[in-house]
Amino acid sequence: MSTLTVEPVEEKVDVLDRKEVQRGRTPTNKEYFMKFVCAAMSNMTASGVSNPQDIIKVRQQLRTQIPGAKHNAFWAVGAEMIRTEGPLSLMKGFTASMIREIVYSGLRLGAYEFFKDKLYAASKGALTREGITLKVLAATCSASIGSALANPADVIKVRMQAHYPNGSPYRNTRHAFATVFREGMNSSAAKGFPVLGGFRALWRGVEATTVRGVVLTISQVCSYDQIKQVLRGHGIMQEGMPLHLTASLFAGLFCSITSNPVDVVKVRLMTDKNRQLHGVMHCVKTILVNEGPMAFYKGFSMCWGRLGTHTIVSFLTFEKLRQLFGIDPM
Predict the structure, then answer these.
(1) Contact 105/314 with Cβ under 8 angstroms?
(2) Which ranges does the record mark as transmembrane (predicted)?
């Protein structure tokens, strides 16, 4: 005697939704563009919220005291900034940060699914959508392009956030761009090509920036994507705010651990106006010799606070904007 089993309607709908996703409908160019817009808007929101934490992290990474020194703690750095430079000092580099997020995060997050779809199609199914390899390759492509193109805005952001005992040499973001460009034109690195030297100054540290962008995107976007997939696939959680929050919490921790060392190198190179550091490897060696290996985790607590906050806000906003624009969840 056979037994008739009746599945709840919600389970049937969920199964149908998963099958539709597995069929891999290719989004239109308009949908890809809207994903870019959603990514840029969500990361601008997150960057605005976390800017105070970002500037404190930069100040910590530029200090050369013994690692773990009490006066290098994030609360001490923040209190000192407010006392000596005023509360608005915690929003320095804000405009440059917004410009950076449009280019950098708009591409690294917004183009992530574009590269996933294109690489999946190019592999003719050899790279499965459920596998981590496809995600890592897609993140590498989107992050490399976004990081390289956004490097000038990153340089300006870091320069404006750095501490200057005699006052900031930059009146505003436009003045900072012009100053750094002229600095490159007049440097010995220009070698008779001043305009080229100016552009080289704006793209200083691009190697570290790109490596950091790739490492951060793989550990942040891929982990978010993978955690969502696992939790949803095993029926532990359904699509919605709790799932987005859980996945973004883990993603924020992972990307903070992996990206902090590269971030320290990037910040040191970008603020090296006197060209005392001759590239990424020389910077790494200098830090190791003068400050020890733990120097690569200077500012980690604030990095985690900043990246954790940024990750949660950006992904929650990203998913909500996708819903508002009628785009499927990531």
Answers:
(1) yes
(2) none
Following DSSP, what letter does each residue of 245-313 receive, concatenated?
HHHHHHHHHHHHHHHHHHHHHHHHHHT-TT--S-SHHHHHHHHHHHH-GGGGGTTHHHHHHHHHHHHHH
What is the chain's alpha carbon radius of gyration, rounded to the nearest angstrom?
22
- Report CA torsion sign: 296, 302, 305, 310: negative
Half-sphere exposure of 68 (CA within 13 A, CB side): 3
| Domain limits, the chain | 27-76+89-324
Q: How many CB atoms lie within 10 A of CB 193?
A: 12
- Give the DSSP letter string of 162-198: S--TT--S-SSHHHHHHHHHHHHHTSGGGTT-HHHHH
Buried b (16+ CB within 10 A) or exposed e, 240-257: eeebbebbbeebbbbbbe
Reported in sequence order, the residue ranges of 38-96 that DSSP labels E, i.e. its strands, are: none
Taking alpha carbons only, the member of 46, 219, 29, 44 closest to residue 113 is 29
Neighbours of 126 (CB within 10 A): 11
Q: Is the pTM value of this prediction over 0.85? A: no
From the number of C-beta atoms within 10 Å of its C-beta (0-12, 13-18, 19+), residue 88 rates as exposed
Which residues lie below 8 Å from residue 92, measured CB to CB, with a gap of 6+?
A: 55, 160, 161, 168
Cβ atoms of 116 and 225 within 8 Å: the answer is no
Using an 8 Å Cβ cutoff, are 258 and 296 in contact?
no
The CATH architecture to which 27-76+89-324 belongs is: Alpha/alpha barrel (1.50)
* Residues 143-190: tens digit of each pLDDT: 999 999 999 999 999 888 888 888 889 989 999 999 999 988 887 666
- Which among 256, 224, 223, 216 has a CA at the least distance from the CA of 243? 224
Residues 310, 288: Cα–Cα separation, whole Å: 29
